[in-house]
């Protein structure tokens, strides 16, 4: 038979409401009583009812997480970090898959508020002020992982995308490549890809290489899009190298190159961005910018827990370190 809060109260010689105050830290009690109650809880193995606890504290042990595409490799790794660190702090995840639709994202924000979640981690391809306002209305701790979060007065986790793209482009140039194509997201005002495009463009300009718009294409973040856009480029000319702003797109581009009768990296080098698990398993294995995807998820939920506990967070925008991972998809010219 499971131990109830009534059993704990009886053994500790206090009222049920006093046990509730100790568990939920809702009202002050003396240190002597707190220690006595906690000792009984430890002895009996009592586990508080999460539903009852949420009614007292007006919050649950749930963290709401909104993502744009649960099937995306990047999102999957991000969720691993969020969930595993959440478990350490005894928080469960309430996951919402928005399919990148703003109406769905706003609907889920309201749903999570109604569920009295303790905080929200909002992952989206593109943020808007409407998102920020909707979450702020609930007065909930929130952290954003988004392509343009650094443009808003919010807490966010990311990397320095412009510098990372600059270094990758410079790496290709140092390998002797001059005709470097670029495949980026076509999402309107997509800041992360804009930052990556700026890094790419600056590296070319700093090395006196003319930008060739014929080998710059825009599409979505899927391998199918990478295949289609690479085909468009090859129908015009053969570049020395392709820089894709996601690994999935890069893998799609490699498939197209091979289907067209070319070799990677002998004829065309290909690099990506993210370092999803598939990047090291694919053949040829993909040279890419390694984002600490798991850590981004882990840091975001740690920030949420700090906010819930009233701890101070030094910087609103947290930039994590990245790494250029060299594999088999690039060859020196």
From TrEMBL:
SMART domains: HTH_LACI. The keyword Transmembrane does not apply. It comes from the Bacteria. The keyword Acetylation does not apply. Keywords: DNA-binding, Transcription, Transcription regulation. Residues 3-57 form the HTH lacI-type domain. PROSITE patterns: HTH_LACI_1, HTH_LACI_2. One of its GO terms (molecular function) is DNA-binding transcription factor activity. PANTHER family: HTH-TYPE TRANSCRIPTIONAL REGULATOR EBGR, LACI-RELATED TRANSCRIPTIONAL REPRESSOR. This is Transcriptional regulator, LacI family. It comes from Alkalithermobacter thermoalcaliphilus JW-YL-7 = DSM 7308.
């Amino acid at each position: 038979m499971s131990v109830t809060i009534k059993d704990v109260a009886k053994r500790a010689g206090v009222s049920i409401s006093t046990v509730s105050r100790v568990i939920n830290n809702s009202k002050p009690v003396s240190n002597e009583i707190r220690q006595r109650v906690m000792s009984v809880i430890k002895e009996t193995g009592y586990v508080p009812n999460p539903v009852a606890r949420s009614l007292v504290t007006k919050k649950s042990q749930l963290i709401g997480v909104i993502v744009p595409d649960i099937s995306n490799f990047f999102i999957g790794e991000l969720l691993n970090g969020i969930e595993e660190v959440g478990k350490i702090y005894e928080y469960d995840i309430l996951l919402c898959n928005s399919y990148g639709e703003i109406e769905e994202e706003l609907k889920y924000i309201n749903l999570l508020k109604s569920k009295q979640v303790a905080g929200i981690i909002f992952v989206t391809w593109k943020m808007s002020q409407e998102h920020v306002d909707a979450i702020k209305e609930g007065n909930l701790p929130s952290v954003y992982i988004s392509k343009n979060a650094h443009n808003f007065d919010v807490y966010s986790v990311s990397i320095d995308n412009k510098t990372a793209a600059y270094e990758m482009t410079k790496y290709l140039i140092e390998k002797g490549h001059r005709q470097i194509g670029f495949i980026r997201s076509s999402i309107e005002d997509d800041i992360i890809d804009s930052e990556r495009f700026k890094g790419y463009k600056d590296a070319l300009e700093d090395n006196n290489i003319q930008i060739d718009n014929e080998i710059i294409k825009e599409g979505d973040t899927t391998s199918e899009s990478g295949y289609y856009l690479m085909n468009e480029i090859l129908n015009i000319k053969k570049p020395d190298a392709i820089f894709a702003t996601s690994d999935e797109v890069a893998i799609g581009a490699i498939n197209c190159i091979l289907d067209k009768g070319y070799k990677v990296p002998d004829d065309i080098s290909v690099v990506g961005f993210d370092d999803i698990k598939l990047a090291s398993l694919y053949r040829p294995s993909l040279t890419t910018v390694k984002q600490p995807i798991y850590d981004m998820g882990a840091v975001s939920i740690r920030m949420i827990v700090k906010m819930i506990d009233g701890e101070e967070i030094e910087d609103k925008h947290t930039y994590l370190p990245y790494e250029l991972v060299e594999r088999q998809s690039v060859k020196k010219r």
